[in-house]
Design goal:
By secondary structure, this protein is α/β, with parallel strands linked by helices. The chain is built from 17 helices and 14 strands.
C-alpha cells in the first residue's frame, strides 16, 4: 500500500471515529450495568485489558499529570509502561502514550479499526450500548496490549464507579484532589462526587490519597480504608523542602523558581506510587525521582512558556505565556494563585468555557482571574457544549459586576483571530484558560517552543 493510500485510509478511520463523537455530544451519567457493553466488546477482542498490570487514577483535578508522572517514574526504573488518558489537545493519539509520546499513527489506526469493526458488528447483532468513551477505552487497551506494555496507567474519564476504565483488575489506586465539577452528573456536594471516585477502589488493593479539601479529607480517608486496602497519604510538604535543595536545575523551568502547587501535589502522589511499586529510596535517589516527576511534560496544565511566536505572523513573540485547561473552581483558583506567585498580571486573557461549567462555584476564582486582565478575549470552543457568545459574555459580566475597572470583553470567531487580537499587545503576558478543547485549538496556532 502506498503512503498516500495509507494516509487516506487513516483519515477515513478518523472520520469514522469523529462521527461517533458527534453522535454523543455531552457527558452523560450511567449506572454500573451500562458497563456490560464494553465488557462484551473486550470479550470479543480477547480481553486485552488483562495483558498488563494497572495503576488507576481518579479525582477531579490532577489526574492526567499524576498519571504521566507515575508512568515516567516506572519507565525510569526500566518498566515498559503505557498511559491511557484524556482529553487530548492537538491529536487524539495523545490519549495513548508510550515512552512519553503519542502512539504511532499506524498502531492507533490498526487498533482503532479493529475496535470499530467489532463494535459495529456487536451493535448490529446484539444491540449493545457502547459510548464514544467506551470505544476509545477499548482502543487504548488493545493498543497497549499490542505494544507489549507491562504496566498501564489509566486515567478515569468521568467519575469512577461506572467509568469505562473501571473494568480492570488493578495493582494500585490513586485519588487526586476532589472538587466540585460535573455536578449535574456526579452529585451536588463533595461527598457525593467523592463516592463516585471511590468506586475505583478494590478490597486488598492499596490506595494513595492526595491532599483533599479540609472538609473532605478525614471522611475520605475512612471511606477509602473501608472500601479498599492500605491507604497511604501523599504529603507534598517534605518534597517541597527537598525541591528547594535541588538548586537552580530544578527551579529553572518556572518563574521565580515557584513550582506550581498542583504539580507538587501530583509529584507527591507519584512518588508514593513509586515507593509502593518500586521500593523506597532516600538521599540522591529520592532527589532524582522527585526531579524526574517534577519535570514530566504535561502540556496545558499550568504550562509556562517564554518567547512564543504566532505561526505566519511577523510580529514579536509573546514574552510570557501561561496555558491552562482547568475548567472548574479548584483549577481556576490554582491558576490565579500561581499567576500571583509568578508575578504575572496585566495580561491578555483568552478565555473559553463549556456551557455546563458556567456555574456558581467558578464565579469567585474567575472574578479574580478576570480582574487581573487588561483585556478578555472570548473564544467559544467549537463543540456542541459551547455557550453562545452572548451567554458567555453575560456570565462574565455578572462575575465582574461591582469591579471598578472591569477589563473590556472582545469576542473572536476563531483561535487565530483571538491570538492576533492579543498580539496587538505583545509586551503583555498571555494567559489562555478555561477549556482543554479551546486550548488545543490555540496551541495549533503557536510555533513550537521550548516547554517550561
Amino acid at each position: 500500500m502506498s503512503a498516500s493510500a495509507s494516509h487516506t485510509d487513516y483519515l477515513a478511520f478518523l472520520e469514522r471515529l469523529r462521527a461517533r463523537e458527534r453522535y454523543e455530544p455531552v457527558a452523560r451519567s450511567r449506572g454500573k450495568e451500562k458497563l456490560a457493553g464494553i465488557l462484551r466488546l473486550l470479550e470479543v477482542l480477547g480481553h486485552p485489558e488483562r495483558a498488563f498490570r494497572v495503576v488507576h487514577v481518579a479525582g477531579t483535578n490532577g489526574k492526567g499529570m499524576t498519571a504521566a508522572m507515575v508512568a515516567r517514574l516506572l519507565a525510569g526504573a526500566g518498566r515498559r509502561v503505557g498511559v491511557y488518558c484524556s482529553p487530548h489537545l492537538l491529536d487524539i493519539r495523545e490519549r495513548i502514550m508510550l515512552r512519553g509520546r503519542p502512539i504511532a499513527k499506524q498502531a492507533f489506526h490498526a487498533a482503532g479499526g479493529t475496535v470499530l469493526d467489532a463494535a459495529e458488528r456487536l451493535e448490529r447483532k446484539e444491540r449493545i450500548d457502547l459510548s464514544y468513551f467506551d470505544l476509545l477505552t477499548a482502543m487504548g487497551f488493545l493498543a497497549l496490549q499490542r505494544e507489549g506494555v507491562a504496566w498501564a496507567v489509566l486515567e478515569v474519564g468521568l467519575g469512577g464507579f461506572s467509568d469505562a476504565t473501571n473494568i480492570t483488575d488493578k495493582d494500585l489506586c490513586i485519588l487526586t484532589c476532589i472538587g466540585l465539577d460535573h455536578m449535574g452528573v456526579l452529585g451536588k456536594d463533595l461527598r457525593s462526587i467523592a463516592e463516585q471516585k471511590l468506586g475505583i477502589l478494590r478490597p486488598g488493593v492499596p490506595t494513595i490519597v492526595a491532599p483533599q479539601p479540609e472538609e473532605l479529607q478525614p471522611w475520605l480517608n475512612r471511606r477509602a480504608a473501608e472500601l479498599g486496602g492500605t491507604v497511604m497519604a501523599a504529603d507534598p510538604a517534605p518534597l517541597e523542602i527537598i525541591a528547594r535543595g535541588l538548586g537552580h536545575a530544578s527551579s529553572e523551568p518556572w518563574p521565580r523558581g515557584r513550582v506550581p502547587a498542583p504539580r507538587m501535589a501530583c509529584a507527591a502522589a507519584a512518588l508514593a506510587a513509586a515507593e509502593l511499586l518500586l521500593g523506597p529510596v532516600q538521599g540522591q535517589a529520592l532527589q532524582a525521582r522527585l526531579r524526574r516527576a517534577l519535570h514530566t511534560p504535561v502540556p496545558g496544565r499550568l504550562e509556562y512558556r517564554e518567547n512564543v511566536a504566532l505561526r505566519r505572523h511577523g510580529g514579536p513573540p509573546f514574552r510570557k505565556v501561561v496555558l491552562d485547561g482547568g475548567h472548574n473552581a479548584p483549577a481556576l483558583q490554582a491558576l490565579t494563585d500561581q499567576l500571583a506567585l509568578w508575578g504575572i498580571s496585566g495580561y491578555s486573557l483568552i478565555f473559553g468555557m463549556q456551557k455546563d461549567k458556567l456555574s456558581q462555584p467558578v464565579r469567585k476564582p474567575l472574578a479574580r482571574l478576570l480582574a487581573e486582565a487588561k483585556q478578555v478575549i472570548t473564544l467559544a470552543p467549537a463543540t456542541p457544549r459551547a455557550p453562545a457568545t452572548e451567554e458567555l459574555h453575560d456570565f462574565l459580566a455578572g462575575v465582574l459586576k461591582g469591579h471598578a475597572a472591569a477589563p473590556p470583553l472582545l469576542a473572536c470567531p476563531g483561535p487565530r483571530e483571538a491570538l492576533l487580537a492579543a498580539a496587538r499587545h505583545p509586551g503583555r503576558p498571555l494567559v489562555a484558560a478555561g477549556s482543554f478543547w479551546m486550548l488545543g485549538d490555540l496551541m495549533k496556532q503557536l510555533k513550537s517552543a521550548h516547554q517550561r
